[in-house]
Amino acid sequence: MLTGRRWGSLAVWRVAPLTLCLTTALACARIAAPPGGPPDRTPPQLLSTSPDSVAVLAEWDEDVEFRFSEVISEGGTPNFGLGSGDLEKLIILSPSTRVPVVRWRRSRITVHPREGWRPNTVYRIELLPGIVDLRNNRSQNGRVVTFTTGAPLPTDTLRGLVINWETRRPAPRAMIEAILLPDSLPYRSATDSVGTFALGPLPPGEYLVYAALDQNNDAKRQPREPFDTVRLERGRVLAGELWTFRRDTTPVRIQTVIRQDSLSLAVTFTQQLDPTQPWRTDSVRVVTLPDSTPVAVDTVLPQEPFDSLFRRPPADTVAPADSARIQQERARADSARVADSVARARREQALGAERRPDAPQTDTMALRVRTTRPAVFDKLFIRLEQPLVPGRRYVVTFFGLRSLSGIVGSPRSGAIRIDAPPAADTTGAVRDTARTAPDTTRARPDTVPP
User: Fold this and answer.
1) CATH code of the domain containing 235
2) 3 state SS of 14
């Protein structure tokens, strides 16, 4: 039987190693910078890569390695092969659709394809900017390693510019995927901070180039994400501008119809419309219920030209005699601008990207932003020739309306009841009765006695 002193000694003897192990594990769980010394604000520098780029390595069966000048951070999210790890997001391995095997080795990163290296294939491993050291200094530089496992050395570099059509601005960090035909080998990259990309060197051939806005950051092209595509035949390396927008295979539908004023209706659709289609009055029909009496349509326009034509300036800023002249000048200017924008957009679509196989790879003139495409929208305004009658119900129908995806439909609204306009604000015309009444007891100057 153990006494109290022996039992206490035995408990301490058993607990002490466990406490030591837990303390050691907690101390080694996270690598941190040593305390003291001057602050380090220098980001990690990439010293070398293995193998060298560009090389032919027919018997290559090792990992691609990136070596840095200091210990780098593994990140808060580990690499589990799902593409969600902090280091996995910084590695793009092509041609492969699977998440590569990425391992952190203190001052090195090793990479290899999950399915293994294939013979006679051109491989491209891109390290994106974003490597962080232990003091949270972030590197702004990347690196590309290209080698072959027996195939000839690649020579082509695909270049282009990605634009978000909704904002009409270049799209940074957009996903680029160039599929080599007919082998369907996908080579991937990402645009830089100004929306341009240079994907290469790649083997010569015909490519189908996709540009997509990776909204969920999964490094995959999803059907509901905005994208654009262009086919480059063999020898063509300039993709030009790719205008991304959200595709939809269903026809456009009317979402809401709202009374804008006594003569106007604002119609909102479920999709964005093709801005190059003509807006004719015979493409819309407005009828009253229950007898389906047609109402003459004067104008159908998007919001910007509609506001320029029918949105009047304040009465105290423009003289009545000049209002008609200003309205006519705005109408002519807006009509000319819309017609010129549509014409240039159609020429742009017909010509496509320039074919310049002999242009140098550093030529940036072909990548200049051409903002000739009109802005996209999902709302139209209908101007009627006679005022809307409060209490009546109206039905709006469009014919041959084309969505931005090119799907043509004839959407029809439900019955819209027109409510009476709000009463005019007459509070400004009411006399201020709180003002102090004038003093009528004071004698007039002509009645004052001498």
Assistant:
1) 2.60.40.1120
2) helix
Helices 320-351 and 303-310, packing angle to 10 deg:
160
Counting the structural domains of the chain, the total is 3
Gap between the Cα atoms of 20 and 114, Å rounded: 39
Separation of alpha carbons 365 and 356, rounded Å: 11
Burial class (CB in 10 A: 0-12, 13-18, 19+), 252: buried
Q: Which residues, including other chains, have CB under 8 Å from residue 32's CB and lie 6 or more apart?
A: 134
Structure tokens at 340: 């010129």
* Confidence (pTM): 0.69
Model pLDDT, residue 53: 85
Domain contains 64: yes
What is the three-class DSSP state of 94? strand
Question: What tokens appear for 204 in the block?
Answer: 């010569």
Question: pLDDT band for position 100 (50/70/90)?
Answer: very high
The DSSP element (H or E) to which 112 belongs, if any, is strand 108-112
Q: Is 345 helix (H, G, I), strand (E, B) or coil?
A: helix
Burial 295-311 (b: 16+ CB within 10 A, else e): bebebbbbeebbebbbe
Q: Is residue 81 part of a domain?
A: yes
